[in-house]
Specification:
The complex is a heterodimer of chains A (393) and B (372). The mean pLDDT of chain A is 93. Chain A is 43% helix and 14% strand. In chain A, helix 1 crosses helix 3, helix 4 runs antiparallel to helix 5 and helix 9 packs antiparallel against helix 11. Chain A contains 11 helices and 8 strands. The radius of gyration of chain A is 23 Å and the shape is globular. With 393 residues, chain A is of the alpha+beta class. Chain B has 372 residues and is of the alpha+beta class. The chains are: A alpha+beta (393), B alpha+beta (372). The interface between A and B is large, with 47 and 43 residues.
């Protein structure tokens, strides 16, 4: 037996012994997702047991080094762990902006001391992080941000506000872009870390068209931030932010790869019925769904090729922008078709049958896909400039 | 297998790309067109292809070929597409080889070595009407004497008027049977028509064509699977060629955006054009990945190949079509002139898009393969 086969056997046995049956059920509600953090209320004992077991083994962040709370797995081993978890339909033990966003930034730019100090609580689900990037006046033009940190010797005093801060009202700490030099646009921003319980921090949830409030406005009123709480270099936070944006787009892109070839038309044919020829009984919708399926299957191939190339350094460094653009536009199209397929039933907003308006709310939620993390228009700008090398872009 | 070219494939591309660009650039097509060439391609160029071993790439080594796969022939086809090179490579070196290799037997032994050595040009006589409907073949093969008698009409038969042999799909009592019909068969006539892209495709009439029993490719009534292999290979090849056509058109257009000035600016500075060019880039990249996936699945003999082949033909069709339309539009008035090459890309794209099933046909196939 090869080493990897042995590892697979070991993982299989470990999962069998440690993943509770309840954690192998599909996610039904928002509170089935474990976000961790100081104030997180576990839905049940199984959710907590599953997190604790994974945290102890390093499996919440399997590919991070052991010193930072990971399991130190190789890419091949990580892939096997994911495959085995998928096989038993295990839920993710921990969803976390700390894992997805701050972790990669610290691993790339943090000091050894910072890595040990911040990454371990992320891996154990003890500290929940939120991201402070956009401001009311700085969306796509993020670098124009004005939240200001005044240098007071051993600390900064931060004033300003952030918007679209995901789950700011539930987060323990924030990683935040703060202007520290007003004379230098790009090299005048610092990537700061601070506690959301610091005096002067307030949050206000934003009600979205979906009826949900996953995002907040976050206000900073004379917030004291110790001078050792930043990543990278002072005034060079834009480098960290850019790295993270690339990472975020890569993550979104990767979401398109490796999945099952699920056909939207196939799913609706069951609900709609078929005509005598065995075709979905609405020819124009059938055609649109088939065209969509074709594009999705094509995008899956693109996702596979992109990841193969990205991981081996063959991809154009800006190609994650193209993946994000194509993938998010496709997802919006999917939900338009889901709504068309669902007809008036999909319009229901709060009935039990509609699972609280799940389809309508998801449809509305997807409209943000091509706005958050860089709009489609910004993605096209980046492709034009960095890949096609068009002038003046 | 990762979805990018390995070192051997990259080397193949490095030798084929400059060869095609030097020996058969767009001016080569213009020369054939302007001299009203009656063959449809240059035999001298085909001899050069043969020297490089290209016609036999897909032919198994046992039959004198190189035993390569669709990923490799796709590399050649992309360059053929990029340079709009008239060539029987797709019909002969890909479609016919796939069918003969799948069938094996007498005809494979007779024709595969001849294809590999560059001696034989083979045409594919599948379509019967203006649209590709291989499930409605009406040409009949009835038993007569020691063999069969073929009756029917075929259309869109590329190289049909010069082919040494045509693969004819016909209905037999219990299914579909493929036949190898030699060019001198009595009752076989090919009427070549000049198409919009200057290629020559024939209306072929089979009027009581008599062939021996051993003209059957594979087994009688069992041609369905062989036809499927022929179609999958040819469609994937056409998709690869379209990626080349689309990429060629896109490259030419992006270059033009960086040269042409209006309103005192390079037109590539205008965001209205930048976004369209960037969108096109995304579509072309997706099409390329999809075609490579189809090639990979075909080479692996995977069951998922059939779906991906249709996805590839449809997606490459959409993307290349966008590339040539945006190409002509962004070139403005000069894009409408015969002197400028971009229009030739539009013409070739249209012909390739129609060949072996257009975008609509293949999107419909995607629906059917997914049960709706």
């Amino acid at each position: 037996m090869s080493e990897l086969d042995a590892f697979r056997t070991e993982v299989r046995e470990w999962l069998e012994a440690n993943c509770p049956a309840e954690m192998r059920e599909p996610i039904r509600d928002e509170d089935d997702i474990c976000w961790g953090g100081r104030n997180f209320r576990f839905k049940n004992d199984a959710q907590k047991a599953w997190l604790d077991a994974c945290a102890q083994k390093g499996y919440t962040v399997p590919d991070w080094p052991k010193a930072y709370g990971g399991a130190g797995l190789t890419p091949e081993q990580t892939k096997i762990l994911k495959q085995e978890m998928k096989r038993i339909k295990a839920r993710s033990p921990l969803d976390s902006f700390g894992i997805w966003m701050l972790g990669p930034a610290l691993l790339q730019f943090g000091t050894e001391e910072q890595k040990v100090h911040y990454l371990n609580p992320i891996a154990r689900g003890e500290i929940r992080w939120c991201q402070g990037y956009s401001e009311p006046g700085s969306g796509s033009d993020l670098v124009s941000l004005q939240t200001f940190g005044e240098d007071k010797g051993d600390h900064w005093v931060v004033n300003g506000s952030k918007i679209w801060t995901s789950y700011a009202d539930k987060a323990d700490w924030i990683f935040c872009l703060v202007r520290t030099d007003k004379t230098n646009k790009y090299q005048g921003i610092t990537f700061m870390l601070f506690d959301m319980e610091s005096p002067g921090v307030t949050t206000k949830p934003i009600l979205l068209i979906s009826g949900n409030s996953p995002f907040c406005e976050t206000f900073f009123d004379d917030v004291k931030v110790p001078k050792d709480q930043f990543v990278g270099e002072i005034n060079r936070g834009w480098d960290v932010a850019k790295y993270l944006l690339g990472h975020e787009r890569e993550m979104i892109s990767g979401g398109g790869a490796g999945g099952d070839m699920i056909s939207i038309g196939g799913a609706f044919a069951k609900a709609f019925g078929k005509n005598a020829a065995g075709e979905l009984d609405d020819p124009i919708l059938r055609a649109e769904m088939a065209a969509f399926d074709t594009d999705v299957f094509a995008y899956r191939a693109m996702g596979e090729r992109f990841m193969d190339m990205w991981k081996t350094g063959r991809a154009h460094p800006a190609s994650s922008n193209m993946m994000k653009y194509v993938g998010t536009e496709l997802n919006k199209r999917r939900h338009e078709l889901v709504m068309s397929g669902g007809g008036s039933e999909a319009l229901e907003w709060d009935s039990e049958e509609s699972k609280g308006g799940a389809r309508a709310r998801s449809w509305l939620r997807t409209k943000a896909n091509s706005i958050e993390g860089g709009t489609s228009e910004v993605m096209l700008n980046v492709i034009a400039k960095r890949i096609l090398d068009l002038p003046g872009a | 297998m990762p979805l990018y070219h390995n070192d051997d494939q990259a080397m193949l591309k490095d030798s084929v790309a400059p060869f095609v660009a030097e020996q058969a650039p767009v001016s080569h097509l213009r020369k054939l067109r302007d001299s009203a060439d009656a063959t449809g391609f240059s035999r001298d160029l085909w001899a050069q292809f043969t020297e490089m071993g290209l016609p036999g790439m897909l032919v198994p080594e046992a039959h004198g070929g190189l035993g390569m796969g669709h990923m490799e022939t796709g590399i050649v086809l992309e360059e053929i597409g990029r340079n709009l090179t008239p060539s029987p490579f797709l019909s002969t070196g890909v479609g016919a080889v796939a069918a003969l290799a799948k069938a094996g037997g007498t005809q494979a032994g007779r024709w595969l070595p001849a294809i590999a050595s560059g001696e034989a040009i083979v045409a594919l006589a599948i379509d019967e009407g203006a649209k590709h409907r291989p499930d409605r073949i009406a040409t009949t093969a009835t038993r007569a004497g020691n063999g069969f008698r073929l009756d029917g009409k075929k259309s869109f038969v590329l190289h049909g008027h010069v082919a040494d042999m045509s693969i004819v799909a016909a209905k037999t009592d219990g299914g579909i049977t493929l036949f190898a019909v030699p060019k001198d068969a009595k009752g076989l006539t090919a009427d070549p028509r000049r198409l919009v892209d200057s290629s020559l495709a024939s209306h072929v009439t089979l009027d009581g064509v008599e062939v021996d029993a051993d003209a059957v490719i594979g087994e009688v009534d069992a041609g369905g699977e062989i036809l499927d292999a022929l179609l999958a290979a040819t469609r994937t090849g056409a998709a690869a060629e379209m990626v080349g056509v689309g990429q060629g058109a896109m490259d030419m257009t992006v270059t033009y955006l960086k040269e042409r000035k209006q309103f005192g600016k390079l037109i590539g500075e205008f965001q209205g054009l930048q976004h369209r060019a960037a969108h096109l880039y995304g579509e072309m990249e997706v099409a390329r990945a999809t075609v490579m996936k189809a090639q990979q699945l075909l080479d692996e003999g995977s069951e998922g190949a059939k779906l991906m082949v249709s996805v590839a033909k449809a997606k490459a069709g959409r993307a290349a079509n966008l590339a040539v339309r945006e190409g002509v539009q962004m070139h403005g008035g000069i894009g409408m002139t015969d002197e400028y090459d971009i229009g030739l890309y539009m013409k070739r794209d249209r012909a390739l898009a129609e060949f072996m099933g257009d975008v609509h046909y293949h999107i419909d196939q995607v629906a059917r393969m997914n049960g709706y």
